[in-house]
Amino acid sequence: MTASVPPFPAGFLWGVSASAFQIEGSTTADGRGPSSWDAFAKEPGRIKDGSHADVATDHYRRYREDVALMAGLGVGAYRFSVSWSRVLPDGHGQVNRAGLDFYDRLVDALCTAGIAPVPTLFHWDTPLALEEKGGWLSRDTAERFASYAAVVAERLADRVPMWITINEPAEVTLLGYGIGEHAPGKGLVFDALPAAHHQLLAHGLGVQALRAAGARQIGIAASHSPVRAASDSAEDRGAAELYDLLTNRLFADPVLTGAYPDPGLASMLPGPVAEDLKAISAPLDWYGINYYNPMVVGAPQSSATASGFGGIELPAGLPFAFRPVEGCEQTDFGWPVVPDGLRELLVSLRGRYGDRLPPLYITENGCSYGDGPDPVTGRIADARRIAYHAGHLEALHRAMAQGVDVRGYFIWSILDNFEWAEGYRQRFGLVHVDYDTLERTPKDSYAWYHDVIKGGR
């Protein structure tokens, strides 16, 4: 645990993250309705280890234990998500008071521990009743989201200092609706674009609803990656530019500039787009960045071959393909470890958006390594995770030295958990979870992060 990091400014916010579906379990407790991910996980072959999240890490019942772990870590904030279908089992209509009470108890426990609650209102688990009516392909879902945001804010806004509307709309669009690797399992390719617009509209309408209910410090958590062309050829550069457009600019430009990055793209989107953009671009207090690695993209080498990355296969026939990121280590997930990509990304965002870019928070950054307890001592010596985060914090510090305004850093994640289509095969946590006994064991990275936080205060 010797990896050190440079000093960060006073007041810099140190946090950890998790999401409801990945940790809560108790999927039928307290009247919670099913979500798109509940249905997806029950479909044979969807989850690689054949598992589901009915129990997950049992955070619903063990949240006090988990809050105590966060307090021992010394974090200033916990980014969690609210299960929409726990609050509104059908996605709209009658409020499930028992479900809302759970988040009330969680927020109280965090406040008592001196940890700022930072709820995310949508982290991929669409209420199944809404999914069956079109999900994010339907404009109605955006409007339902705004009503849901108001319900949660009316209960919690008096104690919540920061809010996140939507988590990673790019992944929901690409993986859920575009290629079907995630819930709801659609394979619509470019016909998935309405899901992007409706999530952005939900964000904008959600901001309005939150502010009306007295919420403050509102942002969004968007995934972003530097996109590098596989070569200097015109074909590879064009493919990389298109991928950057579809995964970075399609989601950031409307929020930060009030316009889609390409008129042709905007023409493919549903509804009164120009009017919607006024809501989508409502000023934010901050903007969240989820960063994991850069992408190398080139033209497809053969129309008959698919392109894979990190266990995800893109269908053949797309106008771009993934290529390996050469010359770097990989996590146990197969993701390249490129800390300076975070600096590269942040500096490029500042260059692209200038004064339109609000203060930033790194709302997710993390790595999957499968280190388990030593059979004799029980210690979990996850030195690779420590090196990963130390390297990324050094890169973040360099970006801040170049003038990028970053106010905080949230590690993904506090606990090992249900990792979506991977099931329980990938471990991102600072705390190890034995999925048979649900025993929590802090890893060496937990102690290391404690020292980083303590040194930064």
What does this structure look like?
It is built from 15 helices and 15 strands. By secondary structure, it is an alpha/beta fold. It has a single domain, classed as TIM Barrel (Alpha-Beta Barrel), CATH 3.20.20.80. The strands form four sheets. It has an eight-stranded parallel β-barrel, surrounded by five helices. It is globular and about 55 Å long. The two termini are 19 Å apart. The mean pLDDT is 96. One of its GO terms (molecular function) is beta-glucosidase activity. Belongs to the glycosyl hydrolase 1 family.
Structural category is: alpha/beta
Main β-sheet, in a few words?
A: 8 strands, parallel, barrel
Report the helical percentage: 25-40%
Q: Which regions have little confidence, pLDDT < 50, spanning 5+ residues?
A: none
> How would you describe the oligomerization state of the chains in this entry?
single chain
What gross morphology would you assign? globular
CATH class: Alpha Beta
CATH-assigned fold name? TIM Barrel
